């Protein structure tokens, strides 16, 4: 993977060569015409004529090569960044950066890697090189003109984008606030549209959105003012260096210190260097905008993993009995414990339903059992303390079928086979049947986030997957969260039946009233979790 | 693809003044470029330093500033107008839209128009104005060079269009593959926890490497073609400039031309090609913007005529006759009557179309066939639904709670309701038993239990019954997910609202249905049939 650096450097050099060709084209044409006006024999002009054509051809061809080389390099870099970030995320998920929003930001930050090089770093490097070449040419012809161009490039290429970046940052805060409010209002309005329509409240909401939009427009107007100022400054800096060169070259030529032929070259070179300055300024703005992405990726790559692997394994678990005693769990970066003083006894084969309101720490318990988050107190699995076991070993014995179980954008069968890649078609068909998926063709694609299957089918795919993995202990975390009442009852009942003689911990927010809930006939024990207390046994069925 | 969609001007009126501003600024910009070139040529030829050049430079800086401000202002204005148009059409539309995709369209989709308005459109205007004016001036200065430019200049758009059509199908095909490959990383990352559970995360590292590699190869294949077209354009442009330079130089040698004119032509000629080349660089961003605009326009649909049929009107509880109503293709026709002032319970498994029946009564879906009569007046697509909905109090299966206070959430049921009325509704439905009116609610009622959210929905129904002339009450699973004690409470709270009003109660709880005047069994297969009267 060392080749990436070389490829990037080559891209930058080719970019610089492209810009230099543009400058060369302008400078040699200027000289050609000045010399031609002295009416020398045509032969004297041949070198200049050939150079003009060569620079013209070179610019186009080099640009083509530069684009191919730098795109290839940037995409290679993207691939490497993806792997590095993913390796780190494997350690971190889901305890840290687990929220889908943050993960989305990480993904778009990684995807932006290619852009940051293609639109910012590489063009800036090329522009800097070409700019220096132009400065060198000017200095060689007339030293003060070199200084003028350098000053112009610095102001136009660095000071102006810096100004623009600062303005953009200030504006971004204001605009982001407006935009967030706008998106929230829009999303709420659309989500609650049936209610708004039924109650005749839609026009009022529309007014509210219009007001938010006006606020957003005002913020946009203010930022446009300062962004425009920066653009104007870039133009001004470039114009000033052209004018400065002219003002220096003309007196020098009149005084005879400068060859008259070179006046055109001195004036036209900064004009061509414009192109480089524009690239510098656009690149700098892009970098400033994407700074947040860079910082986020940096934070991710340096984050501490939420659980520590044991230094020496603490022996092999005997059986799959789970005992939890005095369990306290706190998520990284949280101020208080999500679960305190929790006790639970889960002998092999027992089926326990754990009820609790949202926020009572049910999912936290599942995370602790799967070693997604560090815990205090004691959890033993087959007599061995969980933190003394390698996390992978724990996850071989304790499985999870979560409410937000992900279905990947592939076929139903592939999604299920994920649990055991070597499983035969018959085995996959078998677990599909047990999970109540007989009706679904195994080669059906599920779409992005399972968009082309129903919520119930998605949950059943997750269940079939957990069944295929054949975990001795299965935690079902609100598998009915996104289903309507009837479907939820059916899925839950099927789930518990299909689990057979495995240990099952069913976590749910359903109120758990025996008699009112058909699901409860299928469990051995019903516990209710109240935050801060140990679960209280509500009912124990046969 | 058309470079400009005329529908933009129709749906977003601020587009028109912006286009006019762009043309004005573009014309001034062209004048500046010509003046600058002439002044520079004059200065070099006569070895003078014209101070007028400073004025031209200052004007150029001012123009770029004005361009930036105009672009931002107008794109903000256009975005606001489009957003409103989309939301309006969603509100006036026949069926409440799928909220997820539409929300994305209204926010991110509309924002994709930014580069189109701030970069592409002004550049497009420049690409028309600048080459034409430069060509005219060149012709006046030196017809020979003007001829070269006039011949080569059209090559750029012609080449662009030719290469574009040739590669379009190929590029499109490759973009689809690219999109699928690009989505892979996002898919794997969002499924990371699931992968960890099944101990398959490490395996995915190799997979990411493989897919990214494939993605790179496919991208490079399509880029090679895409860049080839810009190579052709660039070559056409630079070679033309080189030809002009050389031809001017040769004529100078033979004394057929003045030095000043030659310099002027040399400096000015590249300016004719520059805007055309820049249009190409902004083309991709513009394509995204136009694709978003296309999606927005298609979501707007056609203009919908206003309601032409009056809503059923009357005093007292209405009789609602539902005759062979098929709410969705594939469902059995339903026939039932909601007797005036009585409560009809509709029971049956999910998927039988119970909630769709409620949606049809509210005008949210257009039934496939059959009819709904209210005291003899049929509900039809052209009915004044807003006026009909005014007479209904509806409690949805999963009520949506807006972020805001409890009071705001109740008051939404009757826009403009007084605080006193809201308080009375909250009190009567037991909302004040667990919260206060000014307590804030999170996103989707976060922090409330299902029963507490249900009570707020009930308070909304109460408020409507208290303040409006509500004749029909629709209750969709009002006690789902509730324990028997809470269910009993709710049932008691419901009683005064359903008294003397025609009521449709959908429930799968027999205990609740038992209190209705009539129970109707709903099955996915055969038609609805009255199962017997309650007490």
Unreliable parts of chain B: 525-535
Radius of gyration of chain B over alpha carbons? 34 Å
Largest sheet entry of chain B: 6 strands, mixed
For the residues shown, what is the average pLDDT of chain B?
81
- Percentage beta strand of chain A: 5-15%
The whole-number mean of residue pLDDT values of chain A reads 83
User: What is the count of helical runs of chain B?
Assistant: 17
Helix content of chain A: 55-70%
SSE class of chain B: alpha/beta
Enumerate how many helices of chain A there are, as a single number. Answer: 14
Kindly state the number of beta strands of chain B: 12
Terminal CA distance of chain A: 62 Å
Tertiary shape of chain A: elongated
Oligomer: heterodimer
Notes on the protein architecture:
- The complex is a heterodimer of chains A (542) and B (535).
- By secondary structure, chain A is α/β, with parallel strands linked by helices.
- Chain A is built from 14 helices and ten strands.
- Chain A has helices spanning 3-36, 46-92, 100-141, 143-191, 193-198, 202-254, 261-289, 291-302, 362-369, 391-397, 412-417, 425-434, 455-469, 485-498; strands at 322-329, 339-346, 351-355, 375-381, 384-385, 398-402, 473-477, 503-508, 525-528, 536-539.
- In chain A, strands 6-7-8-3-9-10 form a six-stranded mixed beta sheet, with helices on both faces.
- In chain A, strand 9 (525-528) and strand 10 (536-539) form a beta hairpin.
- Residues 532-542 of chain A have low confidence and may be disordered.
- Chain B has 535 residues and is of the alpha/beta class.
- Chain B is 63% helix and 10% strand.
- Chain B has helices spanning 6-11, 15-46, 52-92, 99-111, 113-141, 143-152, 155-190, 192-197, 201-253, 259-300, 354-362, 385-389, 406-411, 419-428, 450-467, 484-498, 510-513; strands at 320-326, 334-338, 343-347, 369-374, 377-378, 392-395, 404-405, 440-441, 472-476, 502-506, 518-521, 529-533.
- Residues 525-535 of chain B have low confidence and may be disordered.
- Classes of the chains: A alpha/beta (542), B alpha/beta (535).
- At the A-B interface, helix 1, helix 2, helix 3, helix 4 and helix 5 of A face helix 2, helix 3, helix 4, helix 7 and helix 8 of B.
């Amino acid at each position: 993977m060392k080749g990436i650096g070389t490829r990037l450097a080559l891209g930058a050099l080719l970019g610089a060569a492209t810009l230099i060709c543009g400058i060369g084209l302008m400078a040699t044409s200027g000289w050609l015409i000045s010399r031609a006006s002295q009416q020398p024999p045509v032969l004297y002009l041949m070198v200049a004529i050939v150079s003009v054509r060569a620079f013209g051809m070179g610019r186009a061809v080099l640009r083509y090569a530069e684009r191919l080389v730098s795109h290839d390099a940037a995409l290679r870099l993207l691939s490497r960044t993806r792997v590095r970030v993913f390796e780190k995320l494997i350690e971190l998920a889901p305890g840290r950066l687990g929220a889908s929003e943050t993960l989305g930001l990480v993904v778009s930050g990684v995807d932006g890697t290619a852009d940051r090089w293609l639109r910012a770093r590489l063009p800036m490097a090329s522009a800097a090189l070409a700019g220096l070449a132009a400065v060198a040419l000017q200095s060689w012809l007339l030293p003060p003109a070199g200084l003028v161009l350098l000053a112009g490039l610095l102001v136009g290429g660095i000071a102006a984008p810096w100004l623009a970046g600062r303005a953009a940052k200030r504006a971004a805060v204001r605009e982001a606030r407006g935009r967030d409010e706008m998106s929230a209002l829009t999303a709420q309005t659309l989500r609650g549209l049936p209610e708004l329509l039924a109650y005749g409240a839609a026009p009022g909401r529309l007014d509210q959105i219009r007001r938010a939009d006006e606020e957003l427009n005002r913020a946009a107007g203010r930022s446009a003012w300062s962004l425009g100022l920066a653009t104007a400054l870039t133009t001004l800096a470039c114009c000033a260096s052209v004018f400065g060169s002219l003002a220096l070259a003309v007196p020098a030529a009149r005084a005879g210190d400068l060859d008259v032929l070179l006046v055109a070259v001195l004036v036209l070179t900064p004009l061509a260097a414009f192109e480089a300055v524009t690239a510098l300024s656009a690149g700098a703005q892009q970098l400033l905008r994407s700074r947040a992405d860079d910082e986020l990726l940096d934070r991710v790559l340096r984050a501490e993993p939420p659980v520590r692997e044991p230094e020496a394994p603490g022996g092999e678990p005997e059986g799959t009995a789970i005992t939890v005693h005095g369990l306290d769990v706190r998520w990284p970066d949280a101020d208080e414990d999500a679960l305190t003083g929790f006790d639970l006894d889960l002998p092999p084969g027992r089926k326990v339903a754990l009820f609790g309101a949202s926020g009572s720490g049910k999912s936290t318990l599942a995370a602790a059992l799967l070693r997604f988050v560090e815990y205090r107190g004691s959890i033993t699995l087959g007599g061995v303390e969980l933190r003394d076991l390698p996390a992978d070993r724990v996850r071989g014995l304790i499985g999870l079928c979560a409410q937000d179980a992900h279905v990947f954008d592939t076929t139903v069968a592939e999604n299920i086979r994920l649990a055991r890649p070597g499983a035969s078609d018959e085995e996959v068909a078998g677990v599909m049947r047990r999970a109540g998926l007989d009706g679904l063709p195994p080669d059906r694609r599920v779409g992005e986030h399972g968009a082309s299957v129903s919520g119930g089918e998605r949950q059943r795919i997750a269940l079939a997957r957990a069944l295929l993995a054949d975990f001795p202990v299965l935690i079902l975390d609100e598998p009915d969260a996104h289903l309507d009442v009837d479907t939820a009852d059916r899925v839950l009942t099927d789930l518990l039946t299909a689990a057979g003689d495995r240990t099952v911990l069913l976590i749910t927010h359903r109120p758990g009233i025996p008699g009112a809930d058909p699901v409860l006939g299928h469990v051995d024990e019903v516990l209710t979790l109240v935050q801060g207390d140990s679960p209280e046994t509500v009912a124990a069925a046969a | 693809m058309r470079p400009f969609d005329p529908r933009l001007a129709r749906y977003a009126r601020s587009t028109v003044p912006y286009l006019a501003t762009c043309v004005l600024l573009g014309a001034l910009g062209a004048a500046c470029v010509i003046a600058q070139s002439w002044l520079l040529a004059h200065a070099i030829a006569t070895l003078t330093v014209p101070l007028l050049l400073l004025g031209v430079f200052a004007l150029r800086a001012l123009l770029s500033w004005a361009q930036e401000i105009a672009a931002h202002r107008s794109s903000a204005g256009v975005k606001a107008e489009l957003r409103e148009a989309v939301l309006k059409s969603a509100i006036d539309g026949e069926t409440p839209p799928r909220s997820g995709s539409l929300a994305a369209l209204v926010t991110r989709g509309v924002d994709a128009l930014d580069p189109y308005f701030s970069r592409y459109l002004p550049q497009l205007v420049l690409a028309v104005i600048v080459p034409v004016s430069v060509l005219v001036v060149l012709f006046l200065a030196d017809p020979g060079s003007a001829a070269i430019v006039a011949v080569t200049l059209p090559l750029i758009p012609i080449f662009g269009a030719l290469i574009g059509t040739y590669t379009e199908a190929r590029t499109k095909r490759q973009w689809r593959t690219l999109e699928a490959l690009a989505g892979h990383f996002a898919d794997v990352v969002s499924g990371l926890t699931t992968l960890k559970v099944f101990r398959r995360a490490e395996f995915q590292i190799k997979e990411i490497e493989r897919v990214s590699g494939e993605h790179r190869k496919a991208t490079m294949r399509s880029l090679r073609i895409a860049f080839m077209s810009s190579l052709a354009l660039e070559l056409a442009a630079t070679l033309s400039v080189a030809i002009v330079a050389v031809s001017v130089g040769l004529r100078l040698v033979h004394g057929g031309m003045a030095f000043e004119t030659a310099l002027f032509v040399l400096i000015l000629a590249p300016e004719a090609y520059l805007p055309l080349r820049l249009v190409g660089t902004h083309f991709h961003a513009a394509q995204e913007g136009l694709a978003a605009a296309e999606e927005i326009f298609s979501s707007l649909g056609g203009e919908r005529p206003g309601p032409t049929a009056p809503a059923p009107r009357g005093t007292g509880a209405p009789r609602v006759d539902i005759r062979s109503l098929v709410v969705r293709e594939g469902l059995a026709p339903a026939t039932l009557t909601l007797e005036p002032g009585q409560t009809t319970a509709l029971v049956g498994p999910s998927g039988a179309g119970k909630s769709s029946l409620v949606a049809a009564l509210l005008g949210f879906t257009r039934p496939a066939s059959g009819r709904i009569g209210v005291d003899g007046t049929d509900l039809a697509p052209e009915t004044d639904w807003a006026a009909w909905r005014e007479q209904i109090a509806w409690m949805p299966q999963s009520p949506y709670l807006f972020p805001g206070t409890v009071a705001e959430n109740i008051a939404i049921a009757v826009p403009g309701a007084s605080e006193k009325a809201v308080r009375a509704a909250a009190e009567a439905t037991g909302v004040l038993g667990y919260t206060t009116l000014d307590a804030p609610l999170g996103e989707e009622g976060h922090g409330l239990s299902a029963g507490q959210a249900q009570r707020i929905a009930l308070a909304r129904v109460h408020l409507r019954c208290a303040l409006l002339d509500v004749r029909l009450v629709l209750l969709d699973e009002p006690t789902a997910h509730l324990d028997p004690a809470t269910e009993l409470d709710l049932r008691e709270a419901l009683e005064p609202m359903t008294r003397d009003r025609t009521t449709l109660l959908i429930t799968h709880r027999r205990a609740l249905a038992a209190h209705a005047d009539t129970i109707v069994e709903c099955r996915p297969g055969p038609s609805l049939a009255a199962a017997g009267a309650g007490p």
